[in-house]
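User: quick one, fold this
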Amino acid sequence: MRRPARFWLAAAVAIAACTSPPPAPTTPTASAVVVPAATTFDAAKAKAHVDYLADPARGGRYSGSAGYRDAATYVADRFREIGLEPLGDNGTFFQHFTMPLVDLTEMSMLTGPGGKTYRPRVDFTESVGGRSGPGKVEAEIAAVGGAARSGGQDDFAGANPRGKIALVTGPAAPNGGSSVENAYQEGAVGVLVVGGGTLRYSYVPRFQTEVLPTLIISEDVANQLLAPAGKTVSMAQDLVRARRSDPRAPASGFDVPTTVHISVSLTPVHDVDAINVIGLLRAPDPNNAQRAVLVGGHLDGVGTDPDGSVFQAANDNASGPAVAIEVARALAAGRSSLNHSIVFVAFAGEEEGYFGSEAYVTQMSVSPGRVESLVAVLNLDVIGCCSDTLLVSNEAPDLQRRVRDTATSLGVSTDAIGPGGSDQTSFARRRVPAVFIGAADFILHVYADKPSVVQESRLKKAGDVVTAVAKDLATAP
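Assistant:
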């Protein structure tokens, strides 16, 4: 899932990866073995797909990497054995496109007073994209609340952030703008944001001309850095709330006599050859077959850290393509009943900003498949852990209702959520009915997202729902 939404978590901190160019791109090949289709969703097979795709040997499936190409080949092999038609380039399952990418060259650093060294992916993590980029800075801290500077709110009042590192404690203000951008405009040379320090946020490969090194730090680390000023995060937040409710209250910003060193080192932005995997289950009636339902999810993950630690990306999002493969197998057995075709896709480049789904929309020129031919899109993301409740987004209320009603009929609970956060966005922008389907209380972008967190029982519930909805849509008049 893109910038934990992507991406709920990235948005929450109000900010917006290969260490060297990947090997020369090659076109994966898929074997031509066709095996009998199943009649129901097979959760054991889906779990086996997750185990393979999220194995450390895949290297976290960073778009353009050898590990991603290995994963794409595996998905294509499964599509072929099920009997799907290739719908990619030149009679293959692979749709190639070029996308930009950026990655760390070394682990980011945060050093506090007395030379205390904090741990990346434990105490802090970096933010990459937009105003947040590479850099090395040593400076004192200015605590700036939620870093709001509009609508009559000025969280910077009381602090002197120019030439300092802005520490954003929150709370964020409605319509307060980007905390990093506001800190830049106030003259800060770096930014620390209190948030989820264990995540590797998606790296957005687009930058402003001038950038600031930006780290997301845990509340515990922030408390340590604020201690010389006699403050804590909760105290700083209370000051912000008081000031916002009463402009006569003391200014909420303050300087901290603490010097810290932060460092973020990145590769230049470079282009890579990325690959979507696309298969077609064609309906038998040639007239109705020109319309299609699309079922898919992104195959890419956030890769491997410079110290060799792999983000195996089992739930986010080996689980999505794994479910899609077995939905295809189940529906292929009933192909004769279909009125509309079904397209199955594993997207690349979702983590960096929906590059794969955007490439699908712009490059797919045949029907069924092209965006004008699509009846509906079911986008599967973070669907294997860690809840028995499915989340269904609201870009298309009628489709959302259909998914939720189907789930209820199968004894699966659901919750409605807002739009965005994953590849359905690319289709919703073109007014194609599209929804995200995933599990609540998901895990993503951490080292712990390993195959062991994905459970067969949850894959089964999700797979049964998606199979039923896709079949219902594809057998409709």
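User: anything notable?
Assistant: The chain has two domains: 17-102+269-475, 105-266.
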